[in-house]
User: Fold UDP-N-acetylenolpyruvoylglucosamine reductase from Corynebacterium wankanglinii.
Amino acid sequence: MVDGHSGLTTCSHGSQTTVVHVTAPSFASLTTLRVGGTPAAAYECTSAEQLADTVARLDRAGTPLLVVGGGSNLLVADGELDLAAVLVRNEGITLDDDLRLRIQAGTEWDAVVAYAVEHGLGGIEALSGIPGSAGATPVQNVGAYGSEIADVLTRVRLWNRETGVDEWVPAESLDLAYRYSNLKFTRRAVVLEIELQLQDTDLSIPLRHLGGERVPLAKARESVLETRRAKGMVLDAADYDTWSAGSFFTNPVVPSAVADEIEAEVGEERMPRFPAGDGQEKLSAAWLIERAGCHRGFPGEDAPARLSTKHTLALTNRGQARAADIADLARRVQDQVRGAFGVELHPEPVWVGL
Ligand SMILES: Cc1cc2nc3c(=O)[nH]c(=O)nc-3n(C[C@H](O)[C@H](O)[C@H](O)COP(=O)(O)OP(=O)(O)OC[C@H]3O[C@@H](n4cnc5c(N)ncnc54)[C@H](O)[C@@H]3O)c2cc1C
Assistant:
């Protein structure tokens, strides 16, 4: 069977479906930035076992591979790439009597949030509208509006690529931190399934964008989606401001003395700065980018890659950009912030081949 969307051919062996690639889809069609070249091969995995088997087989053969969920946190180089794309497409949600959700890695994350809200289960409503797959949520400990997956994640089923073991591991073993886990930027394991502990509740968690207010779950979800849409943070094919990887840089953590210097230099009251422990503070990357002279839409109308017109933290493809254009813009923004404040901005998405 040829899947017209992905360009993959699948053939069935009994109950298992094995994937054979014909023409590998380009990363421009696999990522939300809509840039990037073509992998040497692509494998669509529709069960956890198939995902583990495919990765094990490629690893045994010494074939470089990239695990791809929704492609919403990936910047992949242009041209022909010497790697196989392993597409995580195993889907399904199960709920047990103790309100634990078990979710196959390829399930669309926002469908999980919608499911939870519909079933009166609280804990993830503030994570509404984040694109991508459930399996990728622990990879960078996704978060928004004062909530993160670490708050509800209990266990993760991993295919451990180093030991060749299929194992459930506790969330604590992933070193989850701000936009980080020990799975990010490594090849050590593939997430096959995740497990979340949710709560039977009518009210949401306190929502940061509503001043800490708790509201009914469905209202919370709608309010988060509305706020995200206004910032171009909900995917919309018709809106170039959403042809992005979301926030492109993490918020930098600097010594308090550096934060003091920047605040004095800019001369504005109420610079966003938050305690980060050990005499360190977290600054707002978006605020620094704007104060360094990179406005919305930067660098200007003719550029194929620009900052979003709704949010300076999103680098966007205006329809014709290549991966190199996005990478150039990222370096330009980094240079400008470094030049203005001596602060290094670190990209949040995973760069491949650049
Ligand atoms: C418009 C927009 C808004 C966004 N808003 C937010 C936000 O509010 N908060 C936030 O935290 N992020 C946000 N993001 C970033 C992104 O959506 C998340 O990081 C998301 O979890 C990525 O999921 P994905 O399936 O698309 O991962 P991909 O982009 O496919 O992969 C990202 C990385 O994870 C790895 N990976 C993917 N699946 C697996 C797996 N099963 N096992 C092991 N490794 C895997 C990949 O190899 C790659 O290294 C946003 C992105 C966009 C485009």
Summary: Residues 32, 66-74, 88, 105, 130-133, 135-137, 139-140, 142-144, 183, 190-191, 233, 235, 242, 244-246, 350 surround flavin-adenine dinucleotide (CB under 6 Å). The CA atoms of residues 247 and 314 lie 5 Å apart. The longest helix spans residues 323-341. The longest strand covers residues 80-88.
